[in-house]
Amino acid sequence: MILATPSAPLVDRQAKPGGSVFSVGGVEIGGPEVIVFAGPCAVESEAQIIAAARAVKAGGARILRGGAFKPRTSPYSFQGLKDEGLGLLVLARAETGLPVVTEVMDARHLEKVVACADILQIGSRNMQNFTLLEEVGQCRTPVLLKRGMSATLAEYIHAAEHVMRGGNERVILCERGIRTFEPSTRNTLDLNAVPMLKRLTHLPVIVDPSHGTGLAWMVPRLACAAIAAGADGLLIEVHGDPSSALSDGEQALTFDQFARMMPEAAAVAAAVGRRIGAVIDMDLRGTERAS
Ligand code: PEP
Ligand code: MN
């Protein structure tokens, strides 16, 4: 057995040549369905997160996202509702049945985040916070590990190995754009990473075109491109009123824009032999409707 990355044997494709498929709250990740994770950048209020949860579910999302602890560049920007935000995510899950993903920024918060989240997000800024990676490795809650904004794929793969070495086998990788010399977009979405990570590792790979571009109008095109490149899922920021969002409003889709993106994404998924949640079920199978 020849490993592509001998120093990351647990993550290496050879450890599971068929690819990892696992279930989170009844949602199968890494299987034939392209899983859409959607919701606001940050949980802002009960009304906001409940409306967003309902809207993304109606559009075909399978997982609700929303930050309670927000890593912000300025200490004066909105830092998230923290504990209150976690409680609101639990409420939104109860309301819609969607499993939730939310970021854990600090190992000191891990216990309370684990108590509320179905998936723990490790943000780009913490991809090489090795003590945090080891702590989440000790948990049995699945982890969505975002690529560091300046991380090579080798560094990224080793970060995932840190999590898996603790025994946490359910790790999802997420390409979210990297820093390049190009200033017209927030980041440069590195779609090369998708086939490369699928080749080098057995982990599901999803793509976040919201942070990858920083511009809402570009998100649907890049979402489709990500599916064509082989992504197992999408992470999409959606807000009821992006112009009043407390973080990342410029890259958030409105409920309508999200609803219009999903059939396009479903058509691309169908073209590459995959499907997307409820939308494809409605569009291509007539009356049948997924939950
Ligand atoms: C986010 O998902 O809102 C976020 C902060 O992402 P990243 O860590 O990729 O910047
Ligand atoms: Mn964000």
Helix content: 25-40%
Largest sheet: 8 strands, parallel, barrel
Domains (count): 1
Binned strand content? 5-15%
**Continuous helix count:** 10
| Annotated CATH homologous superfamily | Aldolase class I
Give your account of this protein's structure.
The chain is an alpha/beta fold and 291 residues long. The chain has a single domain (13-271), classed as TIM Barrel. It contains 10 helices and 10 strands. The strands form 2 sheets. Strands 3-4-5-6-7-8-9-10 form an 8-stranded parallel β-barrel, surrounded by 6 helices. Helix 6 links the parallel strand 8 and strand 9 (205-207). Helix 1 runs parallel beside helix 9 and helix 8 (219-228) packs parallel to helix 9. The longest helix is centred in the C-terminal third of the chain and has 17 residues, at 255-271. It is globular and about 55 Å long. The chain starts with 21 loop residues before the first strand and ends in a 7-residue tail after the last helix. 50% of the residues are buried. Bound molecules: phosphoenolpyruvate and manganese (II) ion. Manganese (II) ion (MN) binds at residues 41, 211, 237, 247-248.
